[in-house]
Amino acid sequence: MVLFLAAYPKKENLKDGMIQRIASVDRCFSDVPRVYLSFSTIRAFKRFHKKEGDLVDIYRCHIILDFFFIMSLISKSTKIYIHSLYNVIYSLFYLLFFHKKYIFDAHGVVPEELEMEGRKFSSIIYNKCESFIFSRKKLTVVCVTDAMINHFKSKYINTNAKFVRYSIFPENIYNQQKDQYFSDTEKADDLVNIVYSGNTQKWQNIELMLKIIAENLGSCNYNFLILTGEQAKMQSLVDAYIPSGHHIMVRSVEPEELFPIYLKSHYGFVLRDDILVNNVACPTKLIEYLYYGITPIILSDNIGDFKKYGYESVQCFNIEGLKPKKSVKNNDIIQMLMSENNKVNLATL
């Protein structure tokens, strides 16, 4: 039995980037008995259990009251798959008792993210948790980019960990055919569709994006669309930055609704600063953009490994005169990464 320290992916939470990663990994273990364990702290005293098919058990346990049950789950497991450092913090005490085979799926560089947000104490705590994980003798670290692997190798030069790169591919791009995305690129319609897909976190640089949109509202052939899970908050920002008399559509859609939108889109905003957190990242949004032949509008091109792959992009301060065209090269990059993912069998690590 493989024990996953993570919430189980379901339709209700698939908009979340971490959950999309968990769902992607879960497909690799589809024929393996597995348990998903998450923790409750103060108020939820009753243990939650649900069966998902014949091979999956989902538990949410109280971190203290279910001590012996949690210990038994860990004891029975053949390996422990930890999704993100955020799922280490509650389980760290239990993991001290066991020398199991660990698979740590990093997702990101959590201590550095917290430090960037000004949460220095939390950054220190998560650095301690990360150091504990990298001290394990039987450890495989799964990273989303080679840049992230290089970061951890530099940070933990004495670790015995093995490293594997496994990129993120969300549910909505599986089982699609490449040829569909470019069948309409020769049409005479000169409308340039520019999309943003994401929420309002500080590192998304939403204010900068809205300023750029406001400066280009005079381009009559530009059509802007914002997709977000924080519709009310985003709408208030749009109202603050976009001059009255101009309408920018703000929508919230399900993952399965993205296909026809991305199919029509030519460009997409990904305004990331040139900092470590972004330099090692593999944003789900960027994967989706490239897969659907969308050219990213960027602040920095140093995002994950994509600069190394030569992806096509446009600098955000120079978006005048854009043409309504798809990027075949960007789609080819994602096809290459998907092919490389298929060579990795996470279930055998």
How does this model look, in words?
With 349 residues, this protein is α/β, with parallel strands linked by helices. It has 2 domains: 2-166, Glycogen Phosphorylase B (Rossmann fold, 3-Layer(aba) Sandwich); 173-336, 3-Layer(aba) Sandwich (Rossmann fold), CATH 3.40.50. 33% of the residues lie in helices and 19% in strands. The chain is built from 13 helices and 14 strands. An 8-stranded mixed sheet has the order 3-4-2-1-5-6-7-8. Strands 11-10-9-12-13-14 form a 6-stranded parallel sheet. Helix 4 runs antiparallel to helix 5. The model has no long low-confidence stretch (mean pLDDT 91).
Quick structural gist:
With 349 residues, the chain is an alpha/beta fold. Helix content is 33%, strand content 19%. A hairpin with a 3-residue loop joins strand 3 (48-52) and strand 4 (56-62).
